[in-house]
Amino acid sequence: MSAPGPYETLLVEERADRVVVTLHRPEARNAISGLMIRELHAVCEQLEQDPKLLLLTGQGGVFAGGADIAELLERGRDEALQGINSRLFERVRRLPMPTLAAVDGWALGGGAELSYACDLRIAGPDAVFGNPEPGLGILAAAGACWRLPELVGESVAKQALLAGRNLDAAAALAAGLVIDVVPAEKLLDEAHALLDRMARSSATALRLTKLVVDSPGAHPIADDLAQAVLFEGQDKRDRMTRFLEKRSSRE
C-alpha cells in the first residue's frame, strides 16, 4: 500500500479501475477522527471527478473501532448540526461507482456506519458490527438509524441499535449485511475478486443501476437535530469522560 498525497490517516492505492483505501490509525483502532473525515472527503472528491470502484478496509485486523470519542466529547450542538460524519458517509453512499467495505475485526459506531454507507460488505471471520452509541449518551446519527433497517430489517436493526447486540460475522451473513464471510488471509483477495466481477460489467450500466437503486432520504437532517440535543447534554459528557478515564487507566 502506498499513501500518495497529504494523507496521514489513510493508505491510498490507485489502480486503473479502482481505488483502495485503508483506514490507518493503528494507535486508535482506526477510530474515525476529524482529520480522517477530511481526508476521506478528499478521496470522495477524486472519485467524483474520476469515477472508479472503491475498496475500503482497515489496517491491522480492525476496520474502525468507532468515532474518536475524545473528539466527540468536545462536540456540541453546532457540530452535530454540521453533520460532520453523516455528510461524509452520505457522500460515500452517493459515489458514482460501486463501493465495497472489506471488514475484519471491529466495525463499531461510526466505523459500522461507514461500512453501512458502502454498497456492499464482505467480512472476515472476526468481523463484528455494532452501534453502542446510546451507552455513551448519544445516538447512531451518521446513518445507522435508517440505513441499518434498510439493510437487515427493523427487528435486527433494533436489536443492534436499542439492545446493544453486536453482529458477528455469522450473524451479519445471516442478516444479509455482508455478501460473504471468508478467511482473514483471503479477505482482500476475495474483495478484489468481487470488484473484478463488477469491473467486467459496463461502467455506465453500473452507474445508472446504482442511481436507480438508491433513493434520497431526509434522514441526515433528522439525525443531526436529534444528535444536537444529545451533544449538549451532561449525560453525554459524563459517559464519554468515564469511557476515556477507564481507557486511560488500562494503558
- Whole-Å distance between the termini? 30 Å
Name the beta content range: 5-15%
Major sheet, described briefly? 5 strands, mixed
Strand order of the largest sheet: 1-2-3-4-6
The overall pLDDT average reads 93
Number of helices: 12
Structural class: alpha/beta
- Percent of residues in helices: 40-55%
How many strands?
A: 8
Summarize the SSE layout with pairings:
Elements (H helix, E strand, L loop, with lengths): L9 E5 L3 E6 L10 H16 L3 E6 L10 H6 L2 H6 L1 H10 L5 E5 L2 E3 L1 H8 L2 E4 L4 E3 L13 H9 L1 H8 L5 E2 H6 L12 H13 L3 H11 L5 H13 L2 H17 L1
Parallel strand pairs: 2-3, 3-4, 4-6, 5-7
Antiparallel strand pairs: 1-2, 7-8
Helix pairs in contact: 1-4, 4-5, 5-6, 6-7
Task: Describe, in plain words, how this protein is organized in 3D.
By secondary structure, the chain is an alpha/beta fold. It is built from twelve helices and eight strands. The protein has helices at 34-49, 69-74, 77-82, 84-93, 110-117, 144-152, 154-161, 169-174, 187-199, 203-213, 219-231, 234-250, and strands spanning 10-14, 18-23, 53-58, 99-103, 106-108, 120-123, 128-130, 167-168. A five-stranded mixed beta sheet has the order 1-2-3-4-6, with helices on both faces. A three-stranded mixed beta sheet has the order 5-7-8. Strand 1 and strand 2 (18-23) form a beta hairpin. Helix 5 crosses helix 6 (144-152). The longest helix has 17 residues, at 234-250. This is Enoyl-CoA hydratase/isomerase family protein. Pfam families: ECH_1. InterPro entries: ClpP/crotonase-like_dom_sf, Enoyl-CoA_hydra/iso. It comes from Streptomyces hokutonensis.
